[in-house]
Write a structure and sequence with these properties.
The complex is a heterodimer of chains A (215) and B (202). In chain A, strands 1, 6, 7, 8, 9 and 10 form a 6-stranded antiparallel sheet that branches. Chain A has a 5-stranded antiparallel sheet with strand order 11-2-3-12-13, covered by helices on one side. Chain A contains 4 helices and 13 strands. Helix content of chain A is 28%, strand content 33%. With 215 residues, chain A is α+β, with helices and mostly antiparallel strands. Chain B has a 5-stranded antiparallel sheet with strand order 10-1-2-11-12, with helices on one face. A 5-stranded antiparallel sheet of chain B has the order 5-6-7-8-9. Chain B has a two-stranded antiparallel sheet with strand order 3-4. Chain B is globular. The mean pLDDT of chain B is 95. The chains are: A alpha+beta (215), B alpha+beta (202). The interface between A and B is medium-sized, with 26 and 24 residues.
Chain lengths: 215, 202
Amino acid sequence: MEAFPEWTTKAHALGTSIMAVQFDGGVVLGADSRTSTGSYVANRVTDKIAEVSSHVYCCRSGSAADTQAITGVVKYELEMLELELGAKAEVTQAAHMFRKLCFDYREQMSAGIIVAGWDKRNGGQVYCIPLGGMLVKQPFSIGGSGSTYIYGYCDSAFKEGMTRDACEQFVVNALSLAMSRDGSSGGVIRLVTIDKDGVARRTLTGKEIPTFYEG
Amino acid sequence: MEMNGSAVVAMVGKDCVAIAADRRFGVQAQTVSCDFQKIFPMGDRVFVGLTGLATDIITVSQRLKFRSNIYKLKEHRELSPKTLTAVISNLLYERRFGPYFCEPIVAGVDSTTGKPYISGCDLIGCPVEPADFVVAGTSTDQLFGMCEAVWKPDLAPEELFETISQAILSAVDRDALAGWGAIVHIIEKDGVTTRTLKGRMD
């Protein structure tokens, strides 16, 4: 054993599996729940899906501190914007605010964020903002260290025009596979589904998480 | 030592010992398989659990088995757990300045006296022979905490199984590099019971 355990010196990292999928009428966001400091699991029931406005949420990966700070700033800016414009925040507005922070502070930050939500103008949308601060709109997006293990699965299982339930099942299966292979992902699966009627949160624990080949 | 990830624990009970290990084989964050053997029998009632670098786990277990076989042929009897500890210590210290990245745990019941015995070494062979429990691997801090909390002296074999299972499953849930199932051996004078635990596969 070392003089100082690793967890006293390492920052909290969200080695993670996150994803968001767009369906006709809304989006589904999903994330695992593990926060690690080195190899120690600091929090095994983390909530990585944060609210930025009533119909826009984001999935956080990378440095826990960085993503919490960025999310706090964007949440504040969106609230001010809603007051000033007298209208609900739109997903593009949130995505661009995230991008501005992630790009301008790209040297100091370690944040991979997926922004997803629903608005009246464009319906359900998913925007991905990886490490350098680029912004790209996608029908579905995966992120975090665990996502590397599920690119093949997601590419083969995703279909355009899935129903809400089919999207949720796709997210659950993909995250389960990622959590099984990635040491930095695990815990419970958190799901957030957003449509015009609002936000529905679900958590899948233990036996509710599907199992696949475990060789 | 944080390349592959592992967790091994051994506990003493009433006329029995238990040794448990996780089953993960990974390369840093990526899990490669969930059926990697980390506990090896070195006789009917003596087991060695190895943690650390996976390739050294394999090599040390093979070299140790060799020494154990030669002893059995020469002495016409099996290695007792205490002697096995000395053999491992010697094996590891021979590589003092280029060591195997491997920390072993010995658990067994002496076939002549029937006394339960556990011990552990560091990677260069310094042995320790406590009366209660030994832990090794990437989750030692978590395992120490669990063992201190749940272990009590003179546990019967069935109670010891429950105790060691809870200790290892809860400990590896807080370690990103260990887990993905577990295996437990309960060693008594009359026999060995082996059970696999169904744990979180994340």
